[in-house]
User: Which sequence fits this backbone?
């Protein structure tokens, strides 16, 4: 890329054989319950449980507990379970356990947020000793992702026996994953040891020690002093300082997160496309990538990082598409020209903008944009809100105006972006279409995306939607963010590192070769 | 370290081996090493078994001199010159040796019995800790108990339970006794008593002084008594030093002072004391104010206030010159004026008792009947238990009684500062028992008819305002019917202050001046009754007279005085009638002269008997 | 007997404080924008059904007074409910977290007492001399230095630059915990030391000017006896009161210190719970703070009663 | 800590009278003046626009064009601390003035009039006396998310009861002094007595409260800002700057240290001035040897 002082994508040195007794991992926050469906973050729990499917680093679905799967009708999916999988306690995994685990997603008593991926789910039945058949209420081309995100399996017997306190340190659900917790605290971390019955390859790391260090600076100091070996919570706005930690390698894997400005296209003042475009032209995306993100981010074109499309298109086609996405280069003449066409030809506008207090990086982005917009005689005022309040106001879906947020894909498919940000059905409270961006044309594309059985068609429709939104300047992608990891130089990661393969990264940690 | 010599007969006061117990020579005390002086060139000598009094007005430097004798001068002050105790030089002595000297060699008793004892420890602890540090060994429990009882008995406390009490559970007199016991615990050769009775009632004062004298005689101890009361000094001591502005101006035996005074200041002091036995025509103290010590380093400090001063007096500081071998004075002109001094003193003594007519028919101004007051909600105790008296036109009424007898309570009820529990107060025909029940207009009228002057000169004026502001504010409350209003300056002239005082703030005024301003403020509304609650109790004698004279003039000008005091000499000077208060009841009433001359009630007799007379018989 | 009543009355006031504080905080949480279910969702997409299920699970839809009433009735039985974020019983969370904070505040207080009282006494004794000036200057600096600034400074100097002490966390095992405690305790203590030194100096000065001290000296009592039984004992009322206030205020200081040093304690818990609208935990912490404040004040008053017979007379008769 | 506590500290028995304030007080006054000037004219005096960024350069150390270097967005630290004086001072000043005003009002009324008003003030005070204001601010501000001025309000609310007690104590010691009784005997109205006679005499106390509250407010607000609860993110308020720039300690320590030093120095200077002024005023009032 043009700014390209720092290449995205993490390359680690080659691994050396040998065991690692303990890997100490720092976390920004505790994860609450030890239950994938209810934990507030999954950094620890992912090491203990397996889902039916998983992703590789590129974002392709790969077998996990299910050794294979197929779609037999628009509403029927059949999964073959892997043989000989055992829980931590040595008992074998059965279809009963999987059925129980899947049903938890829609059990109102569990009230799992993952239920959102199960909206089309009707029922699951065992259709063979190791075979499960899922029946959907309606065709849902994205169900297959649910089997990788939400379909983590726990032992039914234990769960039933501990119905009341499942997920608390006293009753941690039994799983099949590589590590099981030896001690655990919902707020402060815990220690995980290897699962002797793990079905997969035996990892090099013997045990994982998680500790919560909310303050990023303390986290950095902890790395520097060797008190922790690794953390995924690297504040990108401080990447420069972090890069200088002598004993640590900070790598930036490909991410999937985009920093985005949205404009409420359905009410004043941002229902004026020229104003939106003027602002888009005035934002120094490269400057932000370089300074705020210390060159770890990439200036964005549209809202979806091209890597997402690489799963479906070839490299060339992806590039072609990407280059066709309308872009608003940082150009004040163009900005002023657009502004002149708007209802605010001389600016004189005040934009009041809240942002999420915990997103310290937003503060810097906004400080920069504030400076940028000053030149259009637009006054950007921003104030931080505590996360709770920020979400409360945002999800009320009123007076949206201009918003800054980041959007991360939950699964590697354009749909995860376009649906939540661009569907008319999502232009309601508690949903994500903050731009109220929809039109006859976009809804037509959305329909294809939602229902068309042809994968390529669906993806292309998504690609079109991205271009539409960009042209409309409803959403302005600022930067594509990487997925960082800080790892002590003693260690390395075997294979590619990206957000999609994050789930099992500790199993791939090895001793670094020189 | 009991000194066997000290147990000899107290009669033999000649320096047996030439060393006096305490001697000071050219003592100077300054603020810091180079700062302004507070005590200058003081000479003093005290022999074994002798009682010496140091007399002077407030700020003269008495306490500092006393402190120098025990090497306890407050930090920040610098002592130079010579202070010898039994020959040992205290000025150059290190702190450790001084400490070993204290208690056993010299002990000290302080003025305020309410602050002299550690509030957090029992009486007994005070005694034991002193005894222990004296003997250097641990007393056993029973030994200690015996010793405590014995020591308490020595100071007239027979109840051994007192040892278990905390200081706050004891009366002032008791505390002073306990303190005395502590001071005596190491059997000192010299006891310094710094105004040991000033804070006590007259009756208690007499008892404590008696005790002090009996202990002194029994032990043959030297005593340096500090007091501002000449009569107290005369009745207890063998010799008296009079201090003025940081140095001694006269030194003599008590009789020599009255027979042949040799310093104008002493004469001034003696004549300023109001007599107990008769009413004096003209009351006046010494004009002017005590100067700051540093302003009179090179002259006779008293010159500015002295009637006999010549320009010579302002050249050089006069030394203490012998008059006889026991008498010395720092007046250069003593030879010239000795006769005049003597006659001046005689004149005041002989001044005619002013006849007071006894007229009980004049119009009633203020009538109090059945007045009762309790501060407790449950009425568990009464500060006033039924007071009846009448104040008539043209007469002034004195209210006397010991501390706590209810004088101030009565005054506050009259002023509406306290609500009486019961009874009736009538002022010029208006019922003012409850001020709260009065209307706005009535209140305004009442406030124009009764005014007051309080005891404490330092807080009776608002320190934030000028004198002029204070007086003008009072004048603004004057009723139209009270006649044409004077100006603030005129008011000041009336109380004998210059008009220029109007621009000053209270800080810049002395206690006597402040009291006069307070009187002027009260007079601003031309009240019918002026209530004075101990108006001169906090003032030095030399100033008292001036204030009393102003008040007397006020009472002659058509304002009735209601004069509260515990000082029988003062009440004699100021009032026509008197009521005697004991624990909230009137035990005796009548004309001032009849009550004081022929007291009927035992309580009144005790009060009258407790007034210091100035001769040794008073304490026996 | 009267003492019993006194204590009961004081506890009653404490209970009142607790009720008022908990009600206040409850209302505050109730009216404040933002809802716990959104925290649980953490910005993830959700369907209305899921939101409803979460609200039902935590009874968030009950009327305000019902919610408070339920909390209150359970709180009386020492059941403060479960954390919304972690599902752990609040009592367990508090118990776990209070130990590090207790260690911190005790360490801070011990440091304060062993430094501040002698320093204050020393300054009073050396009144207006060089020693006093020096103590006063340090006191001034200490009082002016915000706890967090001291913390950051200590962290960088002794944790990072010199690497003498660990830079974050509580540590495990006694030795390590002690090591982890050093810098935070100092950071917490700096202001406290300054404050107590000042109080001690003032108290000792005023005591030292009293007649009873002069009288004690005039009796030739030993220096140490005068310092102990006169100066120290009589100054101890304000010192004890000041220390009590410090203890009552520890939680406030602990927030700053624990955040700076990433310690897991009640202070950092407070910040997290408040930010995540974890109502039961915030309530539990408020109750804890109210109880601490009440008990500390009661303790201070009882100590003062033990010291001062005048107070004793006033209270017990 | 509440502002009320520091008060007793100023009391000493005998004091030397000084003509000129000691050098430390003069220095403190000069420093306080500078801070006030910065608070008013800071942005005008600053060598650079405090918000102006230089994205291409990022952090640079002290020297050259930037006397104290720049932060990660290339903003001039010197200009930011100068401009930040206003944010740092306004809240504490507001706290000091408003708290003192209400404490005086309630303190004088409750102390002088007694009765039901006093009872209410005292009971409320009892309840709130030992409630740590910072803790409550954390809860309230954290929960409501209202930021700086909410924090200011909370601190005011929590300081008033304690300060009211202090004023009340001062009033109580005046209330029974003869000069007040003389005013009553003259029949002056209660309002006049309170406003003309009591008020000037509790001014030393008010002055002490004012300055102590300022210091307390400064420390409390910067602490809240440090926790992310006070001053607006990205504002150059000193506490916030220290928190925001902690990560720059290695590259440009000034970015974090200068604000910290400024907070301390301001607090120290004002405390020093307060002590001195209180001594002076109360000494003037009691001078009678
Ligand atoms: N610690 C001190 N520092 C400075 N000046 C002092 C100190 N103690 C006393 N003085 C001053 O020294 C002078 C003499 O004081 P001293 O106490 O000896 O007077 P006194 O004769 O005992 O008066 P009183 O009858 O009021 O007790 C006074 O002007 C007083 O203000
Ligand atoms: N405000 C008060 N509350 C309760 N009791 C009081 C109050 N004022 C005075 N007393 C009590 O009332 C009694 C009379 O006190 P009062 O002050 O009238 O005496 P006094 O004759 O003026 O004494 P003194 O000569 O000491 O001024 C005393 O026992 C005193 O303790
Ligand atoms: Mg004296
Ligand atoms: Mg009285």
Assistant:
């Amino acid at each position: 890329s043009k700014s390209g002082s720092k290449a995205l994508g993490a390359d680690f040195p080659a691994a050396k054989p040998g065991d690692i007794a303990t890997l100490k991992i720092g976390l920004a926050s505790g994860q609450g319950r030890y239950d994938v469906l209810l934990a507030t973050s999954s950094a620890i729990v992912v090491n203990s449980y397996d889902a039916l499917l998983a992703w590789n680093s590129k974002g392709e679905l790969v077998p996990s507990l299910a050794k294979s799967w197929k779609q037999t009708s628009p509403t029927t999916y059949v999964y073959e379970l892997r043989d000989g999988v055992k829980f931590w306690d040595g008992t074998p995994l059965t279809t009963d356990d999987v059925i129980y685990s899947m049903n938890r997603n829609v059990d109102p008593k569990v009230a799992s947020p993952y239920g959102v991926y199960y909206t089309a789910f009707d029922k699951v039945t065992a259709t063979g000793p190791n075979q499960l058949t899922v029946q959907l209420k309606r065709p849902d081309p994205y169900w297959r992702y649910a089997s990788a995100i939400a379909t983590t399996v726990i032992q039914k017997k234990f769960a039933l026996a501990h119905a009341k306190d499942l997920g608390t340190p006293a009753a941690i659900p039994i799983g099949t994953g590589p590590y099981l917790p030896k001690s655990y605290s919902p707020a402060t971390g815990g220690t995980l040891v290897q699962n002797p019955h793990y079905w997969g390859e035996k990892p090099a790391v013997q045990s994982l020690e998680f500790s919560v260090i909310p303050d990023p600076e303390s986290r950095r100091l902890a790395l520097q002093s060797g008190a922790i070996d690794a953390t995924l919570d690297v504040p990108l706005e401080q990447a420069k300082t972090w890069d200088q930690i002598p004993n640590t390698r900070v790598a930036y894997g490909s991410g999937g997160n985009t920093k985005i400005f949205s404009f409420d296209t359905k009410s004043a003042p941002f229902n004026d496309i020229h104003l939106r475009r003027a602002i888009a032209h005035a934002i120094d995306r490269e400057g932000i990538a370089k300074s705020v993100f210390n060159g770890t981010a990439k200036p964005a074109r549209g809202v979806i990082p091209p890597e997402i499309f690489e799963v479906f298109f070839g490299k060339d086609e992806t590039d072609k598409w990407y280059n066709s996405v309308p872009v608003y280069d940082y150009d004040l003449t163009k900005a002023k020209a657009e502004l002149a066409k708007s209802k605010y030809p001389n600016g004189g506008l005040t934009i009041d903008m809240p942002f999420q207090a915990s997103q310290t990086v937003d503060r810097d982005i906004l400080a920069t944009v504030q400076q940028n917009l000053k030149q259009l005689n637009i006054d950007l005022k921003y104030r931080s809100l505590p996360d709770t309040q920020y979400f409360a106001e945002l999800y009320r879906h009123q007076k949206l105006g201009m918003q800054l947020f980041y959007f991360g894909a939950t699964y590697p498919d354009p749909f995860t972006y376009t649906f939540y940000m661009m569907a008319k059905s999502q232009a309601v409270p508690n949903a994500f279409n903050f731009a109220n961006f929809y039109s006859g044309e976009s809804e037509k594309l959305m329909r294809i995306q939602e229902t068309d059985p042809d994968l390529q068609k669906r993806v292309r429709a998504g690609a079109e939607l991205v271009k539409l939104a960009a042209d409309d300047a409803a959403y302005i992608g600022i930067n594509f963010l990487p997925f960082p990891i800080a790892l002590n130089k003693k260690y390395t990661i075997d294979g590619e590192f990206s957000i999609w393969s994050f789930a099992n990264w500790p199993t791939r940690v090895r001793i670094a070769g020189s | 370290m009991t000194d066997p010599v000290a147990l000899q007969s107290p009669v033999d006061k000649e320096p047996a081996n030439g060393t006096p117990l305490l001697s000071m020579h050219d003592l100077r005390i300054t603020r810091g090493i180079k700062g302004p002086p507070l005590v200058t060139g003081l000479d003093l000598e005290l022999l074994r078994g002798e009682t010496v009094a140091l007399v002077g007005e407030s700020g003269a430097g008495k306490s500092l001199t006393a402190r120098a004798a025990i090497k306890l001068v407050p930090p920040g002050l610098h002592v130079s010159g010579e202070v010898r105790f039994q020959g040992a030089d205290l000025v150059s002595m290190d702190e450790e040796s001084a400490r070993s000297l204290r208690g056993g060699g010299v002990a000290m008793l302080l003025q305020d019995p309410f602050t002299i004892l550690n509030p957090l420890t029992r009486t007994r602890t005070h005694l034991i800790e002193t005894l222990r540090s004296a003997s250097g060994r641990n007393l056993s429990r029973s030994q200690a108990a015996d010793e405590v009882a014995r020591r308490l008995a020595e100071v007239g406390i027979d109840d051994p339970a007192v040892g278990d009490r905390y200081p706050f559970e004891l009366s002032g007199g008791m505390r002073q006794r306990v303190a005395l016991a502590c001071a005596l615990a190491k059997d000192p050769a010299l006891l310094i008593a710094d105004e040991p009775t000033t804070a006590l009632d007259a009756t208690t004062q007499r008892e404590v002084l008696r005790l002090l004298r009996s202990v002194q005689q029994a032990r043959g101890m030297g005593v340096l008594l500090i007091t501002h009361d000449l009569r107290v000094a005369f009745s207890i001591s063998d010799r008296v030093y009079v201090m003025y502005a940081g140095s001694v101006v006269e030194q003599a035996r008590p009789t020599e002072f009255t027979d042949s005074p040799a310093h104008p200041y002493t004469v001034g002091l003696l004549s300023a004391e109001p007599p107990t036995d008769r009413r004096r025509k003209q009351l006046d103290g010494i004009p002017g104010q005590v100067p700051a010590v540093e302003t009179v380093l090179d002259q006779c400090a008293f010159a500015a206030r002295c009637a006999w001063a010549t320009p010579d007096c302002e050249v050089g500081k006069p030394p203490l010159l012998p008059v006889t071998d026991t008498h010395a004075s720092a007046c250069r002109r003593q030879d010239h004026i000795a006769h005049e001094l003597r006659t001046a003193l005689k004149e005041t003594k002989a001044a005619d008792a002013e006849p007071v007519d006894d007229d009980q028919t004049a119009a009633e101004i203020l009538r109090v009947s059945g007045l009762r007051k309790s501060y407790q909600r449950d009425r568990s105790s009464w500060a006033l238990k039924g007071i009846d008296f009448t104040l008539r036109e043209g007469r002034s009424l004195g209210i006397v009684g010991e501390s706590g007898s209810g004088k101030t309570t009565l005054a506050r009820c009259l002023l509406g500062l306290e609500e009486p529990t019961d009874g009736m107060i009538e002022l010029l025909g208006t019922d003012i028992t409850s001020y709260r029940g009065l209307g706005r207009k009535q209140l305004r009228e009442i406030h124009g008819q009764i005014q007051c002057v309080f005891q404490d000169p330092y807080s009776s004026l608002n320190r934030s305002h000028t004198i002029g502001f204070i007086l003008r504010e009072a004048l603004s409350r004057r009723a139209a019917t009270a006649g044409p209003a004077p100006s603030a300056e005129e008011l000041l002239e009336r109380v004998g202050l210059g008009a220029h005082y109007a621009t000053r703030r209270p800080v810049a005024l002395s206690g006597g001046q402040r009291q006069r301003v307070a009187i002027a403020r009260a007079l601003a509304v031309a009240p019918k009754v002026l209530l004075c609650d101990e108006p001169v109790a906090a003032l030095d004698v030399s100033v008292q007279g001036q204030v009393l004279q102003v008040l007397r003039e006020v009472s002659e000008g058509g304002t009735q005085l209601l004069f509260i005091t515990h000082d029988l000499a003062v009440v004699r000077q100021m009032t026509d009638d008197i009521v005697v208060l004991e624990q909230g009841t009137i035990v005796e009433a009548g004309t001032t002269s009849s009550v004081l001359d022929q007291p009927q009630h035992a309580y009144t007799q005790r009060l009258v008997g407790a007034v210091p007379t100035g001769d040794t018989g008073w304490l026996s | 007997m009267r003492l019993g009543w006194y204590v009961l009355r004081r506890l009653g006031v404490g209970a009142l404080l607790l009720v008022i504080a908990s009600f206040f905080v409850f209302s505050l949480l109730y009216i404040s924008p933002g809802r716990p279910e959104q925290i649980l969702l953490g910005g993830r997409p959700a369907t209305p059904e899921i939101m409803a299920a979460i609200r039902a699970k935590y009874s968030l839809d009950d009327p305000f007074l019902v919610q408070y009433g339920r909390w209150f009735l359970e709180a009386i039985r020492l059941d403060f409910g479960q954390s919304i974020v972690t599902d752990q019983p609040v009592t367990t969370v508090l118990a776990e977290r209070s130990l590090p904070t207790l260690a911190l505040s005790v360490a801070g207080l011990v440091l304060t007492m062993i430094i501040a009282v002698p320093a204050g006494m020393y300054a009073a004794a050396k009144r207006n001399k060089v020693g006093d000036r020096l103590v006063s200057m340090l006191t001034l600096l200490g009082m002016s230095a915000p706890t967090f600034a001291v913390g950051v400074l200590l962290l960088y100097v002794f944790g990072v630059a010199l690497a003498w002490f660990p830079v974050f966390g509580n540590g495990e095992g006694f030795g390590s915990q002690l090591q982890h405690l050093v810098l935070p305790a100092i950071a917490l203590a700096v202001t406290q030391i300054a404050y107590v030194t000042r109080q001690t100096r003032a108290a000792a000065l005023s005591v030292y000017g009293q007649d009873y001290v002069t009288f004690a000296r005039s009796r030739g009592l030993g220096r140490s006896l005068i310092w102990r039984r006169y100066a120290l004992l009589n100054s101890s009322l304000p010192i004890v009161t000041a220390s009590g206030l410090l203890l009552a205020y520890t939680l406030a200081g602990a927030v700053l210190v624990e955040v700076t040093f990433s310690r897991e304690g009640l202070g950092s818990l407070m910040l997290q719970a408040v930010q995540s609208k974890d109502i039961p935990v915030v309530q539990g912490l408020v109750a804890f703070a109210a109880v601490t404040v009440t008990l500390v004040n009661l303790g201070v008053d009882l100590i003062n009663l033990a010291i001062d017979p005048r107070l004793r007379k006033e209270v017990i008769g | 800590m509440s502002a009320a506590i520091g008060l007793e500290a100023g009391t000493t028995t005998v004091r030397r009278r000084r003509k000129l304030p000691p050098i430390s007080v003069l220095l403190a006054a000069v420093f306080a003046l500078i801070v006030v000037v910065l608070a008013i004219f800071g942005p005008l005096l600053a060598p650079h626009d405090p918000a102006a960024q230089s994205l291409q350069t990022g952090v640079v150390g002290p020297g050259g064009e930037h006397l104290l270097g720049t932060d990660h967005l290339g903003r001039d630290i010197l200009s930011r601390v100068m401009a930040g004086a206003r944010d740092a001072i306004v809240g504490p000043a507001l706290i000091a003035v408003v708290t003192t005003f209400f404490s005086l009002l309630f303190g004088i009324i409750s102390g002088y009039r007694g009765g039901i008003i006093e009872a209410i003030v005292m009971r409320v005070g009892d309840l709130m006396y030992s409630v740590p204001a910072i803790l409550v601010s954390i809860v309230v501000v954290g929960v409501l998310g209202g930021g700086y001025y909410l924090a200011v309000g909370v601190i005011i609310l929590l300081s008033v009861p304690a300060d009211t007690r202090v004023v009340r104590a001062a009033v109580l010691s005046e209330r029974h002094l003869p000069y007040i009784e003389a005013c009553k005997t003259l029949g002056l109205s209660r309002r006049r007595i309170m406003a003309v006679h009591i008020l000037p005499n509790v001014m030393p106390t008010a002055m002490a409260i004012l300055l102590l509250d300022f210091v307390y407010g400064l420390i409390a607000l910067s602490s809240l800002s440090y926790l992310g609860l006070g001053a607006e993110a990205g504002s150059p308020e000193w506490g916030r700057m220290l928190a925001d720039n902690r990560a720059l300690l290695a590259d440009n320590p000034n970015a974090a240290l200068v604000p910290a030093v400024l907070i301390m120095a301001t607090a120290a200077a004002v405390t020093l001035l307060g002590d001195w002024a209180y001594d002076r005023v109360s000494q003037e009032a009691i001078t009678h040897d």
About this structure: Chain B touches chain D at residues 59, 74, 76, 412, 415-417, 443-444, 446-448, 450-452, 454-456, 458-465, 473-474, 477, 507, 511, 518, 521-522, 525 (CB under 8 Å). DSSP finds 19 helices and 22 strands in chain B. Residues B 375, 383, 401, 403-409, 566 surround adenosine-5'-triphosphate (ligand 2) (CB under 6 Å). The first helix of chain B runs from residue 62 to 68.
